[in-house]
Amino acid sequence: MSVCYDDNGIPVPCGGWNVYDSYVTDPRYQRYFTIAWTTILALAFFLTTPAIVRILATGDWRRTLGSLAGLFGVHEGARRGYTPVRSNNDKTHSATALRRPPGVVRRPFLAVAALVQSASLLNLPLPASLSRLPRIPFLHTRRAASCHPTKTYLPFSLGRLAVALLIPAFLLATLLPESQLRANPNRFGFLAITCLPPLCVLAAKNGPTSWLLGRGWTAVNFLHRWLGRAIVLLVLLHFYFWTIQYSGAAQTAFLAGEKERRGIAALAFLLLITLSSLPPMRRFSYPVFFVLHYVGIVGFLAFLHKHTTHARAYSTWPIIAIYTADILGRVLSMRIRVVEAEALDGGMVRLALPGLRAGWRGGQHLSIRVFFVPPPLVHARGTGRLARVAKDAAHALRSAVRPFEAHPLSIATEPTGLAADGTGLERGIELYARSCGAGTWTDDLHRFVVASEAISAARRPTPKKRKTRMLCLLEGPYGGLPAYSSPLTLLEDTESLLLVAGGSGMSFVLGVLDEVVGRRLGAQKRGRVDVVWVVRQRTHVAWFGERLRAVLGAAEGSTVRVVLREVAAEDAVPVLSRTQARGGCCAGVRGAAASKEDDGDHDDIAELPPAAAAIPSSCCGPSSSGPAPAAPSCGGCCARTTGGGCCTGATEGSPSGTDADADERDRRAGKPLRVRTGGLGVVVCGPGNMVAELCNAVAAIPVAKQVRVGGVSVHVEQYSV
Fold first, then answer.
1. How far is it, in rounded angstroms, from Cα 128 to Cα 158?
2. Across residues 503-507, what is the average pLDDT?
3. SS3 labels along 521-587
4. Which residue has the higher pLDDT, 719 or 224?
5. Residues 199/227, Cβ–Cβ less than 8 Å
6. Domain annotation covers residue 11
7. In this structure, are residues 125 and 713 in contact, taking their beta carbons and an 8 Å threshold?
8. CA pair distance 472, 467, nearest whole angstrom
9. How far apart are CA 414 and CA 516, in angstroms?
10. d(CA 294, CA 480)
């Protein structure tokens, strides 16, 4: 500190005797933190503006929503069922040009984007010793099948980690300057209050992230959790430093003051929110977490306002405005409908909502409440009386709250104007819910539907299985692909798409696939779509077999080539590669125009085929060195293949030279393989380990190759409690 002298020669501080006043200085840093996070939001909106302008200029928003009614959820369509349906006879074989090959000016930008994306997609593996630890109930999620079952990854990628680190960076930048944290720790409390508005913004399903950025709440929910943890840490530090000041001087009576008691009560409610939000609690009982979460929020805000008057500017009107807008959006999107439920093999239930024709996009989900009462439990032999009473009591408690539980389910169909096969008018919305084990909502729903079907069959025996009708309350849709950038840039202009699904994640991928094919057929754009579906058992293929047949049939004879590969975990396939894949492959048969378009593609880059060209190079083509292996059971999948049959490792019948696509002919002939330069899009939905493996595989693609193919974009759909 600089020393100056007054007129009498007495040393004094050069800045004068300034007393630190936290009620003057700390609010200034509150404003700095608010400016920081709102600037980040504005920057993200600025980067999204070109996509918003394009979707408004082309009128694609009206095609997606159906009408202005689509702004308020799913609906029956503006024409009430009189929308013209595209016919297969009206298909044209002319193709509109897609994205141009990267030029000299565009390549540096693609290189930088590829470098940043490769680094952000990396998922670091945990030490192998952690996988040998005993599993703690409700603490660890179920270990799903993976390419490397013994390898466990961190629950976040480097990109998510970098974004989450912005929170402590902003907090430290506004916490340390001009502060006396030990003598006056009010700065901790001021910053904790400032974090409340962005915390609510990140939690809202209908808020700035969805309106301005077009991103669903599931994409930013991890930031909501990390910001909440930062608030808890700030409040604890605020309480700790004030406590040690007085306890060290033997003046603990200050804790009995009215202001201090209200602050301690607010801290207690905040700790209640924290403990109820831990992953074990959310997995054990989501309704309990939901109730305790709201009770803690109301109690925390009530006592916070009584603790200090400086909280009202940040925790009263902003939170009321954000929450009111969110609730209003939810209420406007609510629909009461009759759902038709059908039980499938493997614990799957298909929920059909006929009559809904517009208002959603591929990959979005609905929050649904189904009003049903689970059937009574069937106890195993040898179960004791106390165990029966305990299980029946728990079952009765669950049955009482089942009608109030809302669960997100992905929409597996597309609106009438975007559906590939044009049957969206009759199908409406289809949702799929798979049983997650005894005692869960999905298991109770499956048992109820099975019991209802058995009762209906006993009363009126009919050859056709009757569906169970129930009332439900819909809310949404939410989530999905980015609303502004994906419809035109990813689904239409990107030449090659890779869609990867794990298990029931196919319900999300199927909605995206339906929209991709429908958009490209409507816009007369060519391209290739590869779909990889990893299932535990081959019988699970029957879940979506009918829908896959419809989409593949719509792409048949067009310039859109769809290839479906199904891989079962029971095959013990270690790597999903072109030379080792043993899963099923179902490709739409292409017409002469599509083959001609492939042969005349001048934007391709020649690459040498791999050395292992002697073994079967395609799951749809027989080996050139020996007979094809016998195809096992399809498990209910009868989608079209190039051989006209159903393949699960090889086609039934050899495809002719005219039917086989150009890539397969080149592979069998040993010619250089062609790489398309119109861009590559990757969409994945499945278990955590599978998603991590795929992201690491994309990150391992050399930057130069990503630039040559026109850029690689990745969308990960993964959300769990």
1. 20
2. 89
3. HHHCECEEEEEEEEECCHHHHHHCHHHHHHHHHHHCCCCEEEEEEEEEHHHCCCCCCCCCCCCEEEE
4. 224
5. yes
6. no
7. no
8. 15
9. 10
10. 26
pLDDT category, 299, cuts 50, 70, 90? very high
Q: Are the C-beta atoms of 491 and 418 separated by less than 8 Å? A: no
Are the beta carbons of 98 and 526 closer than 8 angstroms?
A: yes
Rounded distance between C-alpha atoms, residue 15 and residue 23, angstroms: 20
527-535 and 560-568 beta bridge pairing: parallel
For residue 695, give both structure tokens. Answer: 């992201």
The 10 Å Cβ neighbour count of residue 421 is 23
Alpha carbon distance 456, 477 (integer Å): 32
Residues 500 and 632 in one domain: yes
Kindly provide the b/e burial profile for residues 671-692, where b requires at least 16 CB atoms within 10 angstroms of the residue's own CB: eebbbbbbbbbbbbbbbbbbbb
DSSP calls for 401-457: HGGG--EEEEB-S--TTT-SSS-HHHH-EEEEEE--STTSHHHHHHHHHHHHHHHHH
What is the token pair recorded at 453?
Answer: 């079907």
Q: Predicted confidence band at 635 (pLDDT cuts at 50, 70, 90)?
A: very low
Within this chain, do residues 491 and 525 fall inside the same structural domain, yes or no?
yes
Residue 257 has pLDDT above 80, yes or no: yes
Same domain, 504 and 360: no
Same domain? For 196 and 322 the reply is yes
Q: pLDDT tens, 310-356?
A: 898 898 889 999 999 999 999 999 999 999 999 998 889 999 999 88
Residue-wise burial string across 635-655, b where 16 or more C-beta atoms lie within 10 A, e elsewhere: bbbebbbbbeebbbbbbeeeb
My answer on whether 257 and 322 are in the same domain is: yes
Number of domains in the chain: 3
Residue 293 to residues 269, 273, 286, 300, Cα–Cα distance (Å): 9, 5, 10, 10
CATH number at residue 366: 2.40.30.10
Q: Which two tokens stand for residue 545?
A: 């077999």
Q: Which domain holds residue 448?
A: 58-90+333-376+397-480
Percentage of the chain beyond pLDDT 90 is: 38
Residue 496, helix vs strand vs coil: strand
Please say whether the beta carbons of 616 and 649 come within 8 A.
no
Asked if 472 and 586 sit in the same domain, the reply is: no
Give the pTM.
0.82
Alpha-carbon distance 173 to 35, whole Å? 12
The residue with tokens 């190079």 is 617
129-148 pLDDT, tens per residue? 666 666 655 445 544 444 44
Q: Are strands 680-685 and 712-717 parallel, antiparallel or unpaired?
A: parallel
Residue 100 covered by a domain: no
239 versus 493: the higher-pLDDT residue is 239
Task: Return the DSSP state at 176.
Answer: S
- R_g of the chain computed on alpha carbons: 29
- pLDDT score, position 590: 35
Which of 451, 480, 509 is a domain's end point? 480
The per-residue pLDDT for range 550-576, each reduced to its tens digit, is 898 888 888 888 989 888 866 544 433
Which among 77, 58, 80 has a CA at the least distance from the CA of 69? 77
Q: Are residues 372 and 465 in the same domain?
A: yes
Which among 327, 361, 386 is the end of a domain? 327
Bridge partners for 532 per DSSP: 500, 565
What's the rounded mean pLDDT across residues 595-609? Answer: 39
Contact 198, 230 (CB under 8 A): no
Domain membership flag for residue 494: yes
Amino acid sitting at position 257: G
* Residues 194 and 151 reside in one and the same domain: no
- Does the N-terminal peptide bond of residue 477 adopt cis geometry, omega within 30 degrees of 0? yes
Asked whether residue 447 is assigned to any structural domain, the reply reads yes
What CA–CA distance (Å, rounded) separates 438 from 563? 36
